[in-house]
Amino acid sequence: MGSTKNRNRKPWRNALTTGIGTFFLALSLGYLSQTFIGRLASFLVSFILLVVIILIGIAFDILGIAVAAALEPPLHARAARKVEGAREALWLLRNADRVASFANDVVGDVCATLSGAIGASILFRLVGGSAQDIWISTAMTATISGLTVGGKALGKSFALREANEIVFWVGRILYFLERLTGRSLIPINNTRRKGRSS
C-alpha cells in the first residue's frame, strides 16, 4: 500500500521539481542573457547567440527523441567490449524518461524562452522600440518559430533513424567529460533495469 502511494506521488514530485527548476533556470539565464546583450554584445554577437540557442534546443530535442527510440542490445555489446561511452549510453537509455523530460521539456522550454527574449532585444536594437514596426516584430517572431520548429522536425527523423548512434555518442561525450573533470557525472553503478530488446 505504501509503495503504491510512493509511486503515485513520484510523478507529481518530479513534475513539481522540474517545473520549479525550469522557472528559476529560465529566470536566471534570461536575466544573464539580457544583461549580456544589453551591455556587452554587438548586434552580430547577439544574432550568433540567438542561432546557438536555437541549435541547442534542436540538439536536445534530438537527444530526447533518441533515448526514447534507441535499443539496449547494441550498446550492451559495446559495453561488453569496454568501448568508451557505452556504459554512459546505457545509463541514458535506462533513465530515458528523466533524460527525455530534461532534454525536451527543461532545455527545450528554456531555449524557447531565451530565443524569444534575445529576438526581442535584437528587434529593439533594429527599430528602437518604435510602434510602427509591428511587421518587423511579427517577422522576427515567425523567423525564430520557423527555425526552431523546422529544425526540430528535421532532427526528429534523424533521431529516429540514428537513435542508437546518437545515444552512444552522447555517452562518449559524458565519458570524456568525466575523464576531463575527474568526476562521475552519472551514477553508472545504479543502472539496473530490464533492457529493451525490441
From TrEMBL:
Pfam families: CNNM
TM region(s), chain numbering: 12-32, 44-71
Keywords associated with the record: Membrane, Transmembrane, Transmembrane helix
Ranges where the CNNM transmembrane domain occurs: 49-182
Matching InterPro entries: CNNM (IPR002550)
Keyword Membrane: yes
Origin: domain of life: Bacteria
Protein name (record): CNNM transmembrane domain-containing protein
Protein's organism: Thermanaeromonas toyohensis ToBE
